[in-house]
Amino acid sequence: MARLPRLVLPGHAHWVIQRGHGARPVFVDAHDRESFLAALREAAPACGVQVLAWALPSDEVQLLLVPATSTGITQLVQTVGRRYVSAYNRRHACAGTLWDGRFRCAALEPGAVLLDVMTAIDALPLPAGQTSLGLRVGERRDPMLNDPPEFWALGNTPFDREAAYRRRVAEGVSATRIATWRQAAIGGWPIGEAGFRSNAAQSMDRPGEPRRPGRPRHAAG
Fold first, then answer.
1. 105: which strand partners?
2. pLDDT greater than 70 at residue 214
3. Smallest Cα–Cα separation from 207: which of 181, 184, 179?
4. DSSP labels for the chain?
5. Taking CA 160 as the corner, what is the angle to CA 155 and CA 166, rounded to the nearest 5 degrees?
6. Measured between alpha carbons, how far is 155 from 167 in angstroms, rounded to an integer?
């Protein structure tokens, strides 16, 4: 079956996942992570992409991105990948790709879904500095990180917003829901209510969710 075109909606947030190849780590230490973030920091404005969140575990990259154009995310991932993989291979005296095929991407419905995915990325059980959580709650600053309207709606002052977000992260997001959404992201399907998924799919003339297995049922003649 032909590969479906990647569904990217300009102006909407997208959950981007790029997994490492085999058992090879994507990040060995803090130096690698800062190298990746430096490449992301430089490429994002050039590609017209806003960065809302990130997580850098040892075996993959998770990003929450808002592109201005339908090609912005692809341009960003390719630009960052070329620079980072080259630097990684030089530093660790190795060769070849780090990535397990194409990056995966899911458009997110604004509102609760976007905020839950952002929370889930920041709430990953990783050491400080490996997610954008510290930036989101005011522990550090980085002009690369953008706050979506959903974050601004959490409170009237920076203190209120940061406190409310800390509570969200502490409470977490349903593991079942996140697992379901991650599977959708891996498959390239939009995430949200049925109406959002349908409208997103129609915008690119492609299905909005996986077809059910088995032959289609025919009406009785």
1. 16
2. no
3. 184
4. -PPPPP---TTS-EEEEEEBSTT--S--SHHHHHHHHHHHHHHHHHHTEEEEEEE--TTEEEEEEEESSTTHHHHHHHHHHHHHHHHHHHHHT--S--BSSS-EEEEB-TTHHHHHHHHHHHTSS--TTSBSHHHHTTSS--TTB---HHHHTT-SSHHHHHHHHHHHHHH---HHHHHHHHHHHHHT--BS-HHHHHHHHHHTTS-SSPPPSSPPP----
5. 105
6. 12
Asked if 131 contacts 122 with a C-beta cutoff of 8 angstroms, the reply is: yes
Taken in order of first residue, the domains within the chain and their CATH numbers are 14-202 (3.30.70.1290)
**Through-space distance between the first and last CA atoms of the chain, rounded to whole angstroms:** 29
Q: In which element (H, E) is residue 67 found?
A: strand 60-67
With contact defined as beta carbons under 8 Å apart, do 118 and 150 qualify?
yes
Stretch 63-69: mean pLDDT, rounded?
98
Half-sphere exposure of 153 (CA within 13 A, CB side): 8
Structure confidence by residue, pLDDT tens digits, 82-128: 999 999 999 999 988 899 989 999 999 999 999 999 999 999 999 99
The one-letter code for the residue type at 21 is H
